[in-house]
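Reopening this one. Same input as before:
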Amino acid sequence: MTWSPSSLLIALAAVTLHGVTASTEASEACAYCGNDQSGPNCCVSGNYCQPWNPTYYQPANARQLPDDCCNRCASTSGCAAYTFVNNGWDGQPHCYLKRGTGTRKKAVGAVSAVVSSSSSSRPRATNTTDGGHIQVQIRSGAVQSKAVNLGGWLLTEHWITWESALWNGISADEDHKGEYHTMQLQGKEKGTAAFEQHRKTWITEADIKEIAETGVLNTVRVPVGHWIIRDATTAPGTEGDMYARGGLKYLDALINNWAVKYNVAVMISLHAHQGSQNGIEHSAPVTLGNVGWSTSQTNVDNSLKFATFLAARYKNSPAFLGLNLMNEPVPPVDGNVLRNYYIQAYKQIRATGNDCIRLVTPFLSEQDPEHLKGMIGAPEYTNAWTEIHAYFIWGYEGKTEEQVLAPPQGGAYQEPLFLGEWCMGDPPDSRGIFQNIDNFRELGRKQLAYYNADTTGGWAFWTWRNSDETVKRTGWSMRYLIRNGYLKLTA
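Same output, byte for byte:
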């Protein structure tokens, strides 16, 4: 978990809604639900919204847009709305007919937006459901994911887990360089035993139970490294041989047991890729600071195996929601290689028979609306969300607490959006946290209010547990914040 200043463009802001879709009374006719044109709605009943995610009907060639699409929707049983594109997968105009019903478009307030969602007012998630697992409702777009990260568990970071016995004997000069380096220092036998004990105790079934019992949180996002699949299969390259085996059984327990039992969805974040996508501790690089992922086709092939193995393994698991295909890539990763990886991963995951959510992440330095337009998305790709991270820390040095609390201005973005990381930390200084307790609580309240209302896919707090909670007030541990009344979750 790391962040760069330009990401603040998408942090703590209301979302303007531009989609126009269908409601029950419009479903017998048709309604335009938005894509790359912005003409008037052809239905006299007005503008409506529905979630972006409901299953598409078979796309059909369109001779004249938007009238032809409108007519096709009106004559197709179950069609509630349509999207059209001038230049589809074959270079021809296409209609995408959508089933389901929605609700009236909510009024847009005066707050300027940073990102824009193609979804409208929608049922907001809790961890209860009328039947079946909550994951199904999140995947369909019926409810919003409200998540917490299980940071430091199956992919360790010293700053999160410094109290763990895993770090015994590791000096301050060495403890921040990632799992590869830690295993080099510990040796295979000792290191594997240390990681096993850490994984067994850092997150347990009791944590998932406590998360579910908040009554609001319905998802966990769990970071993993590329070596986790070597517990059950081979993978291109040899870098994974260095890491401690044994993490996969804990991921299995989370997805197939605990999350099913407590009705919590699971999103896996492919946090560490062979070759490293950012050179930072959480990507477990061979050498800290070295970014080599896109320089080798073997690395890319390893990442594809990483993604498709997990998708295939959990395709029938009721709690499995989806995969973040890469966490926080940065230059010098080649942007063309990155986007092609996203496309190939999407196709290969689909080929496994799993239509889970696939999240794509832009460069850490390019999380503004203009750059997000280049990410893969609907209608060519279904269940494809964009993930961004937002922190009020780096780039806010020297600002007062009141200035941090003031929402920034921004642009608009129209793809399904998931805010994969946020926290209640603030600009690093000698104190490292808001001193005014009311302001500290307000930092959490404001972020929750914005993210609950306006992120299409949902959000995930970073993180559930942090060693700092044992010695001081911290904005990085959700369980500490909830237990001590600093953060009140709202549905």
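So the earlier flakiness isn't reproducible anymore. For the record, The CA atoms of residues 167 and 194 lie 8 Å apart.
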